[in-house]
Amino acid sequence: MSVRSWVPDQPTAADLESWHLDPAWSRVLDVASHDGSTYRWHVLDSGPTLDGPPDATMVCVHGNPTWAYAWATFLRKFGTRCRVIAVDQLGMGFSERTGLRRYASRVADLGDVIKALDIDPTVPFTLAAHDWGGAIAMGWAVDHADRVDGMVLCNTGIGVPVGRKSPGLIRIAAAGPLRDFVCRRTPIFVSGTTRLSGSRINAADRAAFAAPYSSAKARVAVADFVGDVPLQPGEGHPSDVALAEVAAKLGAITAPVLLAWGAADPVFNDDFAADLAERIPNTSMQRFPSANHLVMAEADVASVVGDWLSDRVADRVADRVADRVADRVADRVADRVADPAPPKPLWAALAERRTDTSVAFADMASGQSISWADFADRVDGVAAQLASRGLRAGEHVAMLTPPGVDLVVAVYGVWRAGGVTVVADRGLGLRGLGRAVRSTRPNWVVGPSRALRAAKTLRWAPRAERVDVDVLMAQAAVGSESLEVEPAANDLAAILFTSGATGPAKGVRYLHGQLAAQRDALAATYAITTNDSLVAAFAPFALYGPALGISTVLPDCDVTKPGELTAVALDAACRRLDATLTFASPAALANVLATAGSGLAGLAGLRTVMSAGAPVPAETLTALSVLVPNASFHTPYGMTEVLPVADISLEGITAATGGDPIGGVCVGAPVPGAMVEILPLGFDSAAPPASMPAGEMGEIVITSPWVSDGYHGLWAIERAARLQRGDGKVWHRSGDVGHLDDAGRLWVEGRAVHNIDGPAGVITSVPVERLVETSLELARVAAVGVGPAGRQQLVVVVEDPHGADGLASTDLTARVRSVVNHPVAAVLSRRSLPVDIRHNAKIDRTAVAGWAEDVLAGRSSRRFRRG
What we know:
The structure is a single chain. With about 850 residues, the protein is α/β, with parallel strands linked by helices. It has four domains: about 15-325, Alpha/Beta hydrolase fold, catalytic domain (Rossmann fold); about 340-525, Rossmann fold (3-Layer(aba) Sandwich), CATH 3.40.50; about 650-750, Luciferase, domain 3 (Roll); about 755-855, GMP Synthetase, Chain A, domain 3, CATH 3.30.300. The chain has 30 helices and 36 strands. It has an eight-stranded mixed beta sheet with strand order 1-2-4-3-5-6-7-8, sandwiched between helices. Strands 22, 23, 24, 25, 26, 28, 29 and 30 form an eight-stranded antiparallel beta sheet that branches. Helix 19 links the parallel strand 13 (about 445) and strand 14.
């Protein structure tokens, strides 16, 4: 249906104020068109309200069926320092209604309005676009790449990604007579778009989004827009060729591009983001896991984009040469590996022990084992098999095989073939595991048949190539030639997920060179040689064994319940390989101690016991020294993003105990190659201050050659966690708080997010907890803050398996208050405190604080509220 040209009534000042828009932003422009006509455009332009000369200019292009209001959060957030111009496309919003406009015309229309906006050419210029506005913005950008200093693309695409159909909702809306009914005659399409967001946008936002589309006459272009979307390439759609031409030229956009993506979008899902990342050379990504299609209205995209503009776009003005951009991309990766001489590859030890028939890896639960010779051959076979099936370098491979021989062989085989292993262990729980795998969009899934069925049914990896690990191992065992080309040190090797103990699990990127440097750091720190053998009571640590060239055994224990490791199971694993080393979580060692009896001779062969994942009580290690008389006990400090950082022995802990007035947990001196500094709480990553002197508490920051490459799909989180301090090194913000003592030892006082922000200043959690635990001989204590920031009250929650949930007894309350040197508002008792699944040790203090707040407010609360 065509429509005669007309201009809708413009929004009044009262309308704009009700939508929390400055009336001064609303403008109408008469724009000369490329087709010889003049059309009236409505825009929201923050130019009149700028505080001074703009830092940048951003033109924002909405999609269908929205309007310039889609960018309201951008205007509000940084519209005083940047000139933000959100246009209403012709036929949409409050711009002039015209006849049907195809894709190519809309690209030219965008050029017309950009020319008419009187944009200062000396100011960095950025395009932001959403939905099919993204395709239009990209169409203009490929022919004006020299003018584009950056792009922000939100849930959009340039075509249907290879291997999938066009979005189902669009196919339904575009179907023949239904399109006119859904898109024009009724507001179903308009209102349905905001309904996708659920409660993430409010009623006022819904009303604002719908305001320009109150009649069928006003919605003609909504229907036209849907009709202009080619549902499948090659079907002769009028806009098909124009879109394909733009898609083919996207490589010309050398400016930095941020993909800000609502991962829950059923229309433009992660497949579209990945498609754009492959087409456009200089992309970063920030996923918003729970946000839907209207990501800019549902999540704080504006803050992320504000930071991105500051970091990425300003430098572009002085450097518009495409070759320099390519150099920056290469340098960003190369800088992560400090050693100019790349370390040996991860599988080097396999080649060195290829003729060794002794056991390389064993699993006590299944009874399986494999020799070094078979391990080396099987890894080569897996690599060759995957390559023959079509695995390409850099493709993501989700490892859904349970811990054991097959998993470790498959991981090394994928690495050898150039694939990127996605490792999210079962300790995340089923829901967390699915969320982690889905976020990486794996090209391949390797696992037993039941895991492959689950991955497909639960849509963890619906379009991935599924490889049955049993079939893969059988084929690899037949023998095949090894691959000639090896991955380089700067190639991506793995995405390893954090435990999720202090928020959603994050995928941490590691390059081959970084993992190899980490291997070498572990070997140097603990004097590991090929004469050693390892009991990996913490399943992910088992992956280090083959790289270190040491025989490794998994004890008979559920990986999701390490706290159930028994002394008998650990002893049996030690006997299996005459183990000299073991790595276990604090909860596992505590249960070993609790279940210890006689006849544990296997433990006597251990020379080193390592435990990490949470503070390890010295009392536990001292008691264990009776069971393991020949071992040195160590508690390495680190995290998924960088391990090891520091190390301390039991003797060191004993020497440090009581010798520091601040307290916390002493984790020792930094290991060789690592540097640790303390910076003030809440500092700006973009302008890090000088380090703090010994004895002063702040945030722990770390650098080493094995600091990881960053976070997968989380640009904003990666930005906040990375420091460039002008020394050529990449520093990682740990999120932990602590201090260095006069001897250079690091003391950890907890997580920054768990600090108690009280009227008298900040109280850190761990010193309070350790003081109560040691003074009152309690197993587990949580110190949390209740109340608003700046006025939080310290509440101590004691774990008592035999007590009642709620207020602690008068006697216990008095005893806790007597040992804590801060005012304690209340003492509560809980039968069990929530801990992470992976380690069974890290207390979820955010959940404890929520429960404590409910109890103190008199609300019924049996379950923990997650923060």
